[in-house]
Amino acid sequence: MPHIAVIGAGPGGLLLARVLHLYGIEAVVYEREASPTARTQGGMLDLHTDTGQRALREAGLEAEFLTMARREGQDHRLLDHTGTVLLRQDTPDDAPMDRPEVDRADLRAILLGSLPPTAVAWDHGLERAEPLPGGRHRLHFTGGRTAECDLLVGADGANSRVRPLVTDARPTPLGAHVVELGIPGLVRTRPDLAALVGRGNYWAFGPGRSLSAQLGGDGRLRVYLTFHGPEDWPATCGIPFEDPARARPLLRERFADWAAEFTDLIDACDGALTVRSLSTLPVGLTWAHVPGVTLLGDAAHLMPPAGEGANAALLDGAELGLALAADPDAPDAAAHRYERAMFPRAREAARRSARIHEILMSPDAAHRLVAILQPA
């Protein structure tokens, strides 16, 4: 049986490994992180019925997902920077689970728990992949370790080490920079702010920046401050992000002309701080098939964060896994079929994400979002 190597233990890579495991096909997921708890996994994901949830159904994990999914995470509160509420949508208790939220950490735990312990090789950062005859590859990892595979799957995200094997495309900056802060135990420690932000998505928009917040299943409110600026904005804005205690008051100053409820949120945050600059691959990226290698998720179609990326990655993993299960003795042919189906699907998801990002970056973002969320 061919050896399949998956680079990256994100949602798409783990979902692929799970589907292969269901069909008795061995694969090893190589992950740069030292362990499952090496770092926090970020906030919430809304999984859509026809993509992310479909992938979990194919993987036999729908029941586990539904026990952790939060129907109330589908709520929306949308404001402008003066504090005026433009839209409030509260999800009824019997509403369909069309786009429920799930903690990234919980989703990862479901996926890891569905695999044998030997399925993931932790502390294996890929340095390079060396092509061998017949479409095989020799993988070179940190520490001098190596492995060989018949099919190499790049599920290693925006800065994929596998992507250069199939395309010269590189991510380009989107001019948006997200600073993540947080309030632990929100409902217990700050019930006033909990009532303000609600159970689901809380968004506020002003000139050149926005604030959003989301309550996780672990009780932590994640607060996201998004600034518009050039690629080097994190280094040139004058905020010492390496020192959260000094950075937070300066971030607060950037919102001093906003309603007090927004600065109250920033003031209540703890010391944790993360900065991410957003980037994207070209919409509709394709490549001529390269024997023995393929991509999924952000490695294949990095797009702006608009609720599409993780769903697309999960469905990539399911569809590639099913293609390999249907033709286990010809993994390269299966990967080629997967690519032909994935390209148009990913193109449409990327188009939707690019459109939402354009709206979020526009001066009248709040009112344009109202028209989308509450059409006439």
Automatic annotation (TrEMBL):
SUPFAM superfamilies: FAD/NAD(P)-binding domain. Its main location: cytoplasm. InterPro entries: FAD-bd, FAD/NAD-bd_sf, TetX_monooxygenase. NADPH binds at residue 39. Transmembrane segments: none annotated. Its EC number is 1.14.13.-. It comes from the Bacteria. It is found in: Cytoplasm. GO terms for cellular component: cytoplasm. Residues 4-352 form the FAD-binding domain. Keywords: Cytoplasm, FAD, Flavoprotein, Monooxygenase, NADP, Nucleotide-binding, Oxidoreductase, Plasmid. Signal peptide: none annotated. It catalyses: a tetracycline + NADPH + O2 + H(+) = an 11a-hydroxytetracycline + NADP(+) + H2O. Pfam families: FAD_binding_3. GO terms for biological process: response to antibiotic. One of its GO terms (molecular function) is FAD binding. FAD binds at residues 46, 104, 298. An FAD-requiring monooxygenase active on some tetracycline antibiotic derivatives, which leads to their inactivation. Hydroxylates carbon 11a of tetracycline and some analogs. Consists of an N-terminal FAD-binding domain with a Rossman fold and a C-terminal substrate-binding domain. HAMAP family: TetX_monooxygenase. Monomer. Belongs to the aromatic-ring hydroxylase family. TetX subfamily. This is Flavin-dependent monooxygenase.
